[in-house]
Amino acid sequence: ETLKQVALDEKIKTYVLQHPSLYQSLLQAALRFIGGETLTDCVQTVKSLNQQGFAVTIDYMGESTRDVDMAQQATQEFLYVIQAIAEQNLDSSISLDLSHIGMVIDAELGYKNACILAKAAQKLGLEMMISMEGTDRTSLILEIHQRLCETFDNVGITLQAYLHRTPSDLESVLQRPGKIRLVKGAYAAPPDLVKPRGAELDRSYRQLLEKLLMSKHSCSIATHDPALLNSFPLE
Asked: What 3-state class would DSSP assign to 157?
């Protein structure tokens, strides 16, 4: 729960990064979710997972960049990730938050940087997955994704099952190329916009997943919930 709140609070994240002892404490909690603190660490983790038969996606983590130079730096880091995937022959795609590469500074900047990355990934035959963020950014993220899909066919999008709006969003996204990644949704959000964790959310996830599978659209079932995974045995 603490990590959920930190993920949405820019002031807290800045404070944590400025205090090594607090950063280390939260890092210990986060290590189960990350592939490493450096790209070198991450590549080794990916190699290990690939050897076990798992395909992966790599995300240079960050969001809510408020400085143009930092957004450009983040974009460059993602280019390094794309290059590493190709050079190391990894079975991996890339994932990113549009706000990490400039979307909250200027939507056009986020779009242009996303184009740079989508083009680099497409050239190497890689998929680029756009992650979802807080509920206040959902519409803009989907708008940018639609623009990207007018040029690229390798850009996927994440949808959050806990949002009341997602069934309608899914109808629109099914008309676009690129993989659809379905998650439950983890960000803290106003209760009038989302379904609470529990049976209602599980039903929504199953309904959305069934529509995805029936559509035969490329998709990713992004949940660790064994009850949901076992509901749809796949060949």
From this structure: strand
What are the pLDDT digits (tens) for 139-195?
Answer: 999 999 999 999 999 999 999 999 999 999 999 999 999 999 999 998 878 889 999
> Residue type for 59, please?
D
Read off φ and ψ for residue 129, nearest 5 degrees.
-105, 125
Which carries the bigger pLDDT value, residue 3 or residue 107? Answer: 107
User: Global pTM?
Assistant: 0.86
d(CA 21, CA 144): 38
> Which ranges of the chain does DSSP label H, i.e. alpha helix?
2-8, 10-17, 20-30, 39-51, 68-87, 107-123, 138-149, 166-173, 199-215, 226-229
Cα distance between residue 188 and residue 197, in whole Å: 11
Distance, in Å, from the CA atom of 98 to the CA atom of 132, rounded to the nearest integer, reads: 9
The distance of Cα 223 from the centroid of its chain, to the nearest Å, equals: 13
- pLDDT tens digits, 85-105: 999 999 999 999 999 999 999
Which among 133, 127, 69, 134 has a CA at the least distance from the CA of 97?
A: 133
Instruction: Tell me the C-alpha distance between 186 and 216, whole Å.
Output: 26
In DSSP notation, 180-205 reads EEEE---S---TTTBPPTTHHHHHHH
pLDDT tens per residue across span 23-68: 777 777 777 778 888 999 999 999 999 999 999 999 998 878 999 9
User: With the C-alpha atoms ordered 59, 29, 48, 229, is the resulting torsion angle positive or negative?
Assistant: negative
